[in-house]
């Protein structure tokens, strides 16, 4: 592509296809992406390209997980997914999916109902610390008069729980950036 001739130019390349056409165009798409990723990685300019990957289960690139891990220092990858139990798991296996998730700087969750995916994404979003105040009655078993002592502790809660992700409207998405 002509964008590769200008090493300082930032570019966006879209490869869009329907799921029905993936069987016929998968080899060509895989070859094009392999060439593009290798060419961009070879010029060594960090952050020059962001690859937004959707339907990675349909993407028929040989050794996709290891290529993403190898190229993540030069290219940024954003993964769009609905569940971890779909085509990508069947094609790349559990270890391959973990490599893909580790290589992608950004993850976008769209309308998932699969419990493992919701729990994983809830964990990705992080936690917040809340102060928890309690009164302890040390004399509850030994004396009729209460012996109350205050207690402060911190409790870590997820920023967004998996059941909240499940209830998101279908026109909403959640994005997580960073590993």
Describe this structure in a few short sentences:
This protein is an alpha/beta fold. It has five helices and six strands, in the order αβαβαβαββαβ.
Question: Secondary-structure blueprint of this entry?
Answer:
Elements: H1 22-42, E1 49-54, H2 64-71, E2 75-81, H3 87-103, E3 106-110, H4 115-124, E4 127-137, E5 148-158, H5 162-166, E6 173-177
Parallel strand pairs: 1-2, 2-3
Antiparallel strand pairs: 3-6, 4-5
Helix pairs in contact: 2-3
Structure explained in plain terms:
Helices cover 34% and strands 25% of the residues. β1, α2 and β2 form a beta-alpha-beta unit. The strands form 2 sheets. The chain has a 4-stranded mixed beta sheet. It has 179 residues and is of the alpha/beta class. The mean pLDDT is 77. It is elongated and about 85 Å long.
Instruction: List segments where confidence is low: pLDDT < 50 over at least 5 consecutive residues.
Output: none
Give the CA-CA distance, first to last residue: 31 Å
Please bin the fraction of helical residues: 25-40%
| Tertiary shape | elongated
Radius of gyration, whole Å: 23 Å
Number of helices: 5
Q: What is the makeup of the main sheet?
A: 4 strands, mixed
SSE succession: HEHEHEHEEHE
Structural class: alpha/beta
Strand order of the largest sheet: 1-2-3-6
Q: What fraction strand?
A: 25-35%
Count of individual beta strands: 6
Name the average pLDDT: 77
